[in-house]
């Protein structure tokens, strides 16, 4: 892994880019300049942290991620795109992220044409990363705001109304769906948020069982309950085909 810092080149005001795989230095420079223009447009003074991952195939897509602190909130944008246009693709996505946060009323496109779900039936893939997180405790509206700011497809949190672990995720027909560990009734208050409830019970699965189910049925992610701790888990696919497991901080091994 190589790291390129473009802070002193004069082409960007402030930022760091980390790369993995084959990434042309020209693409790094273009991407950082494009993101810098977005930040200037929205009057964001915080430095951007950018990550570019090259494809193992010569003509394959790159994966770009941009992170910045905006109004004391961590904002993240992540999207794959053609190598020659990755600067435009990630800058456009970050621009829309910041515009939605500023206006509060710009709808998110769903299904997302720029980032289709990683849903395909595959042979079983390994869990290569375990992310232990201090879960947000709040309402579905709070969780959706956090999911939106971080540009996630699903978000694990603790539901303040029931005390259960829960997940919100982008899905039809209203754009957002809520799944709680035990209670299938809609929340008492959603503060104007339009969502549907997942009526199915959250399965109790081991890590191995969850990985096998996700891959067998071609799921982009899977929310399940760990039978040992009773806490919620979120398993999702990575762009490299492997899996990542998100779990509450207190439940980490």
Please characterize this protein's 3D structure.
By secondary structure, this protein is an alpha/beta fold. The protein has two domains: 2-103, Double Stranded RNA Binding Domain; 127-251, SHC Adaptor Protein, CATH 3.30.505. The protein is 23% helix and 32% strand. Strands 1-2-3-4-5 form a five-stranded mixed β-sheet, with helices on one face. Strand 13 and strand 14 form a beta hairpin. It starts with a strand and ends in a 5-residue tail after the last strand.
N-to-C order of helices and strands? EEHEEEHEEHEEEEHEEE
Task: Kindly identify the CATH topology of the largest domain.
Answer: SHC Adaptor Protein
Low-confidence stretches: 1-12
Overall, the morphology is globular
**Average pLDDT metric:** 88
State the CATH class of the largest domain: Alpha Beta
The major β-sheet equals: 5 strands, mixed
Which terms summarize this structure?
alpha/beta, 4 helices, 253 residues, 14 strands, five-stranded mixed beta sheet, disordered N terminus, 23% helix, single chain, Double Stranded RNA Binding Domain, SHC Adaptor Protein, 2 domains
Helix-strand layout with pairing:
Blueprint: E1 2-5, E2 15-20, H1 25-41, E3 48-53, E4 62-70, E5 73-81, H2 86-103, E6 127-133, E7 137-138, H3 140-150, E8 154-159, E9 165-171, E10 175-180, E11 196-197, H4 207-217, E12 221-225, E13 232-237, E14 243-248
Parallel strand pairs: 2-3, 6-14, 7-8, 10-11
Antiparallel strand pairs: 1-2, 3-4, 4-5, 8-9, 9-10, 12-13, 13-14
């Amino acid at each position: 892994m190589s790291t390129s810092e473009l802070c002193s080149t004069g082409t960007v005001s402030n930022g760091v880019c980390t790369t993995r795989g084959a990434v042309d230095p020209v693409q790094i420079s273009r991407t950082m300049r494009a993101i810098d223009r977005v930040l200037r447009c929205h009057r964001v003074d915080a430095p951007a942290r950018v990550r570019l991952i090259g494809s193992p195939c010569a003509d394959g897509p790159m994966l770009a991620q941009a992170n910045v602190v905006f109004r004391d909130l961590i904002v993240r944008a992540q999207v794959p795109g053609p190598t020659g246009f990755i600067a435009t693709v990630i800058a456009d996505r970050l621009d829309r992220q910041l515009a939605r946060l500023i206006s509060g009323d710009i709808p998110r496109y769903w299904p997302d044409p720029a980032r289709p779900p990683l849903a395909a039936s595959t042979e079983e893939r390994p869990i290569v990363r375990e992310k232990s997180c201090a879960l947000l405790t709040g309402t579905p509206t709070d969780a959706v705001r956090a999911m939106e700011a971080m540009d996630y497809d699903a978000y694990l949190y603790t539901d303040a109304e029931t005390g259960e672990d829960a997940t919100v995720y982008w899905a039809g027909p209203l754009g957002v769906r809520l799944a709680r560990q035990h209670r299938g009734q809609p929340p008492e208050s959603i503060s104007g948020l339009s969502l549907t409830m997942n009526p199915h019970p959250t399965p109790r699965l081991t890590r191995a069982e969850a990985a096998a189910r996700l891959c067998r049925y071609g799921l982009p992610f899977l929310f399940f309950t760990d039978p040992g701790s009773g806490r919620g888990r979120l398993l999702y696919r990575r762009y490299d085909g492997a899996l990542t497991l998100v779990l509450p901080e207190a439940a980490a091994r």
